[in-house]
Amino acid sequence: MWLAEKPEVSTFLEAMTVRFLEFLSVSQHWKLRYNHNHLRISRAILSLRLLHSWELADWFYNKVKEFSGDSLHLMEEANRYWSHYASPLHDRTAGSFVGLAIGDALGAPVEFADRGTFEPVTAYRSGGRLNLPAGAWTDDTAMALCLAQSLIEQKTLDNEDLLNRFCDWAENGTNTSTGIAVGIGQNALRVLGDFRRNGYLEALPIGAKNDGNGSLMRLAPVACFANDNIEEALVLASLNSKATHASRHAEQCCQILAGLLCKIINGEPLTSALEEIRKSPMNNEVSLMMHRNLVEESEDDIQSGGYVIDTLHAALWSTITTNSFKSAVLRACNLGDDADTTAAVTGQIAGAMCGYSNIPQDLKDGLKDERKLYVTSQFLSLSHY
Q1: For 89-382, which CATH class?
Q2: What is d(CA 364, CA 30) in angstroms, rounded to the nearest whole number?
Q3: Whole-number mean pLDDT of the chain?
Q4: Does the pTM exceed 0.90?
């Protein structure tokens, strides 16, 4: 992780890529069914994607194919690995995970502000109730990082490990953008207290706060990790939600988002993915929301508070009624109220749709700890194959 954060490493990787391509362009020895350079090419693609960018890895892979010419068919087995390591799927996983953080950071300064009472958000800004610097993110992204790291290290979702990471975040500021845990809700405090005192691995029911959006806001790592197995993703989404929310509404919304993200990450358009997801069994209130005609709804039809069904509805509306990542997350931010979470969920969907490479550069450059977030997304997709 620390390597990716050093500018000199990026410069080295770029120079190494050019030198390796110069060698491949003049050598004929590697154009065989088996050759030791095939493994070097695999390692180069993977290293470039992990530590630099999917764009550079993809460019390098396309150059390898170009230089191989008519010999590519001889390297069919090696090319299966190369094409997987450079797949656009990894660009979309990064888009979803980093998109979550971008939405969170854009919305944080206007969190809890009533719609129409603040200057419309057009870029990162400082301030707000949490008084964060521009580009800093809140509990949404911090808890998503905890979830991602747990999945990467455990190779599955272990609620004890996950809740210990949440406690470390809340108590010690681990995985925060400022060194201090911010945005911790009453429900999270209660659940973590129950875990510390009694070892409870699932949240206990307590009033309407069960139906909050806290498990939905951090969901992207589940789909990034298990995008090749939607059934596993649904199970993991359920476990993630139950860890902090004793709510069937929250659980189903997490499963819906996980299924939707898996389909989009694998290249399916949002509209057809939605149509398939709508066929899944769901309770009446969730079903009514999922079958609303989003395109014909106006801002007045959208609620942007902390109720999980409203959050998923607002995120879907913000995404489907806009035509770019930036316009989607800004529309979500400007709904106000629980703006950071609405935009974080929107960023997960819109980021998966457009891919990391198509997110505006200023949104990536201005995001706190962007490199950490990008590399984490790539280890998520790496850990499942």
Answers
A1: mainly alpha
A2: 37
A3: 96
A4: yes
